[in-house]
Description:
CATH class: Alpha Beta
Keywords: Acyltransferase, Signal, Transferase
EC number: 2.3.1.122, 2.3.1.20
Number of helices: 11
Catalytic activity: an acyl-CoA + a 1,2-diacyl-sn-glycerol = a triacyl-sn-glycerol + CoA; 2 alpha,alpha'-trehalose 6-mycolate = alpha,alpha'-trehalose 6,6'-bismycolate + alpha,alpha-trehalose
Radius of gyration: 18 Å
Number of domains: 1
Order of helices and strands: HHEEEHEHHEHEHEHHEHEH
Shape: globular
Structural class: alpha/beta
Number of strands: 9
Strand order of the largest sheet: 1-2-3-5-4-6-7-8-9
Mean pLDDT: 87
Signal peptide: 1-32
Largest sheet: 9 strands, mixed
Helix content: 25-40%
Amino acid sequence: MAANHPTRRNILKTAGGLSAAMALGAGGVLSAASPAAAVGDGFGLRIVDRNENDHRMWYYRFDTEAIGWDPAVNVLLPDDYHWSGRTYPVLYLFHGGGTDQDFITFDRERIRDWTAGKPIIVVMPDGGHAGWYSNPVSSNVGPRNWEHFHIAQLLPWVEANFRTFAEYDGRAVGGFSMGGFGALKYAAKYWGHFASVSAHSGPASMRRDNGLVTHWANLSSAALDLGGGTVYGAPLWDEARVNADNPVQRIESYRNKRVFLVAGTSPDPISWFDTANETQVLAGQREFRGLLDRAGIPHESHEVPGGHFVRHDLLDHDINGIIARLRKA
């Protein structure tokens, strides 16, 4: 996989060539944390592996009943975290779908470089190969409740173990592709949690084109994560879940937030599948932006050449905008 092209070719192969469907350390944790919190017990999480040797990038793997295997997270700390004594805002940054995507995705995207010298903590958790940042309707392989893990367990664990602003103006959420969808979804469903939301090539409309994104969420999750189970239900969807998760149906939930959107406008020469991805992303983001405009909700959007990949210049620009929006360290 090229460093700046996290493609979905593996999903395409696994799902059987579906037509133009869219997918998508050092020492203790912190001096103010209680011993129980520092160990990771509580919030339904138990640390089973950890590495805090690097002064910035700390790694944890958890046992949790929410997920049928042990998901991991990277926590990227500011350069001065260990001696500043300051409290910091947090960006929860989500990876895309596919067998080449996990919690280290943004390490490969040089997130350490883009945040060097910047006063923000970046939390990068596992989200499954095709978890869609959701609690699925059905699973044949045990629990895969990613939404519960991220919102009810990981977020409070981070705030108990690191010096963060545990408030609306202290949190941002963003992501690429499936992760961009997850960011838009969480920002709306948990509107009091996040003051900034960013979707880099993330779909914003689940029902357009006869529900292409919803169908792809079901197909990709069935093939890669759920052993034939689905995120939204098949052959009939759980309509209430789709309504709750669909960004274009939650427009008022984005009021008073910073909203940042990126989509490509031209084919990606690497893969036809990436082109299909970005075509649907662009259409959905345009629909979303139009609704935001009509509601009088400000947003920043970028349509740029190319297909379905992370654009480093816009990721860097986004991080600066997130820091400007959130409470200052």
